[in-house]
Amino acid sequence: MRNCLTAFLAVALLSLGFGCSKEKSKSTNMRSEAEKSNRILKPREESTPLDSAAPATSAVPNDSMVMPSQVRQPRGVTLKQFFDSLKIPEVVAIVDGEKITKKDIFNEIASPIPMSVRDKPFPPRALAGLAGELHKIVETIVNRKLMLKLAAADGIKPSPELLTQAFDKYVSGLDKRQREQFEKALKAQGVSIAEKRAEAAKDINSQEGMAINKWITEKVLPSLKIDDAEAEKFYKENSDRFKRPATVKVAHILLTPERPNPEKMKDMTFEQKKAFAENADKKAKAKAEKILAQVKAGVDFAKLAKENSACPSGKLSKGELPAFDMTGATNDRRGGKMDRTFTAASFKLDPGEISGLVKTPYGYHIIKGVKKTKASVIPFAEIEKNLKENLKKEKMAEKLQGMIEEAKKKNKVEIFLKGPVPVPKPEPMPVKPITI
């Protein structure tokens, strides 16, 4: 239930080297409450980063000078310092006699932020969007309180047992590799699985989230049905959403120009570097032409790819790459895009056809067409299950919203946070003259 925080958290966390996921729809605001309970640490798959120097400037100062950056840069502040500086009433709302305080809002904001960065100074500009999100955060907390009341009326209340059951189910579902990663991550935190289980069970917010999740799963969802006729009607009226683009699958052999040793480059002049690059390019092109001649003479393409290609696909998959569409987007789970020139050349090939040399920033490619698929509409039978699940989630969000609005009529809800919250002017860094 964190989509209302995305605007400022994404910028603030990225400025400190952390990422933040995005959720867009208002309906997700309620659905994700059910996911709030999933604070159990999960092993993350390793990601591979994609493969700059600023020009130096100089000035001749007088006796002393004040650097412009010192004057312009405001002092960094922690999230707590920034929040405390906002003019917010101590009690921001009351739901049927239960107070929602300024502290509750801060906890809602701070909980998704890693402890390792929570107390570090943030750039004030990165936090400026927080003030504009406070009304949404209050609404989020109010809605959660109302859903807890609805769940309690159906006999479901927050408890440690709900979390331990979820924890045990999660751990038992891990395979050997995932279990090892999980234990390794916990060991880095200095805790065992048993200690993490006990710690997770004490989290009040997670208990509430799990209770709401259980209530939605057991009491709300079963009443929602999506029949075949409804799903087919949506499918036919939204056929554009189910289009599958034309794709091509190719194999290639990549020859890359030699790169000079970084240590040697330090002593090379611009002209020497240029000459080296031109000579390396000529050698790579000559080798590529020689291999192309072998391909055309009937030598096995897969064998040549394995022996000569600079692309890992040469040894891993006989030079074959994942299928990709005309934008270069692949259907591979790792994502990524193909080079535009490479993509254009690939779509010109029929299965079994060999290209000439194709130059891209990576080097020289010899491309072989493997398979082509035309643009089409995904058959209803292929997506029927997922479509019904998505329609059910949308219907659930609408029902929850209606139930919350009804609960607001039956329970006295007072909100005291009114109008826009002004953002304090950042305090500038103290300026100290630099004597040169």
Brief characterization of the structure:
With 436 residues, the chain is an alpha+beta fold.
Give the helices and strands, then pairings.
Layout: H1 6-14, H2 26-35, E1 64-65, H3 68-72, H4 79-85, E2 91-95, E3 98-101, H5 102-110, H6 115-118, H7 124-127, H8 130-153, H9 160-172, H10 176-189, H11 193-201, H12 204-220, H13 228-237, E4 243-244, E5 247-255, H14 262-265, H15 270-296, H16 301-308, H17 313-317, E6 324-325, H18 340-347, E7 354-360, E8 363-373, E9 376-377, H19 380-410, E10 413-415, E11 434-435
Antiparallel strand pairs: 1-11, 2-3, 2-10, 4-9, 5-6, 5-8, 7-8
Helix pairs in contact: 2-19, 5-8, 8-12, 8-19, 9-11, 9-12, 13-19
Describe this structure in words.
With 436 residues, this protein is of the alpha+beta class. The protein has two domains: 181 residues, no CATH class; 129 residues, Chitinase A, domain 3 (Roll), CATH 3.10.50. It has a four-stranded antiparallel sheet with strand order 6-5-8-7, with helices on both faces. It has a three-stranded antiparallel sheet with strand order 3-2-10. A hairpin with a 2-residue loop joins strand 7 and strand 8. The longest helix is centred in the last third of the chain and has 31 residues.
